[in-house]
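FORM 7B: Structural annotation worksheet

SECTION A. Query
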Amino acid sequence: MHEVPLATTLFFTAILVALITCLALEEKLHAKKSVIVGVFAILSLVLGAAFDLLPFGNVLVGGHEIALPVYIPGIDWNVIAIILGSSLFVDVTSRSGLFTWIALKLTKTSGGDPLRLLIFYGLMTVVFSAVLNNVTAMIIVGSLTVVSLRKLNRQSLLLGFLVTEGLLTNVGGLLTLISSVPNIIVGNIANIGFLTFFKIAAPYVVVTTFVTLWLAKKFFGIKRLATDTERQEAATLVATFDENDGIESPRFFYFSAVMGALFILALSFQSVLPLEKELGMGFVALFFAAIALVAYKHEVHKFYAAVDWDLLGFFAALFVVINVMEHAQVLAYLGKGISALIALGDLGGPAALVAGAAAASSVTDNIPLAAMLAKILAADGLPSDSPLWWCVIFGANLGGNITPIGSASTVVAVTIIHREKLHLSFGGFVKTAILFAIVQIILAIAYVLAASAVGWI
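SECTION B. Predicted structure
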């Protein structure tokens, strides 16, 4: 890396700020993420070449020099493979009716009691967010919540349920390495294994889930049914749900359940299994996606069409932009700011990093934020067991609970709320959610500090 003039670095910093601003104003610009970042990727590459910042020439791959366009090596293809493979696998297996079956089983088990429903739906939201993705989890649980509370004549509780579920998607998104995109990015750069990620994140997720549910019970006034008559009426109403309605093929249902369990096991032990270790987690995700697609081999085009190509294009372009920024020394200067936060001490440093990441991700997309912070920390040579990686992970995920635009799942929750003609403005959401978000962030800071003190991370 040759020396870059400060004026050039500041110029590219302005481009990065403009990109983040455009992503925050995505709806007002009426443009998809991939288009916005794609335009900035092209602009960054042209200017990077003009300023003689990019390393043109052959690339060393597997001990051999090969010719590749300068923007190809800048893309983290393992992240792209994980997202593509996981989304295809989940999309195919969800066709079995497995997740709807689980949801309806829990609904019937609750007996229609509002508080038990809140607890069951909250736990289901967390689990679904961990094994599916935040948006899919919110769509499944949110849609079932609307149907269930209507049948039980409890529409007055709908707003509280949907807000709580929206907040819990981002808590559940912390549970596994593939639960959210920031997890995938940071975990991949930090070289954190699937099983290690789960072992560290699980205690926090369990505690925060129950604290969030307790706060929701108090804040929204959700109580248990008081009389035997009310309990009997509610139980009779939920008994009309048929969990087998969405199961078209029992054979595929059981196949999906087994494959889902094997998928999680394969990811858990990927870092220790001989072949998987070399091929990587992206290969595991694509491998299981390919097996799942065999079940629908004559109509795979439907699943290809359902892939979020906008998200994949967004990622590829984002990695290109970040690569150019790295060569322009923008990340190095941002790293000095991060170093200043870290220098606040063993207590102040992690706390400031969690809070700063959360505040930033509440008003803009947490994906570029996580990618930039991870790159900056990687440049400092941090080991995979450094607590600072977890500061970024917790902050980037939990910041989505501060505003309704902080994460895709809270956007979905608010969309369902408005579809049901429930009044909740932008300010109303912040006023409602801020207490939950502050408690969750404080718990995250305390957990990182405590886990670091005892050597857990």
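SECTION C. Observations
The chain has two domains: 77-97+256-307, 105-246+331-457. Residues 146 and 420 are 8 Å apart (CA to CA).

SECTION D. Sign-off
Analyst initials: ____
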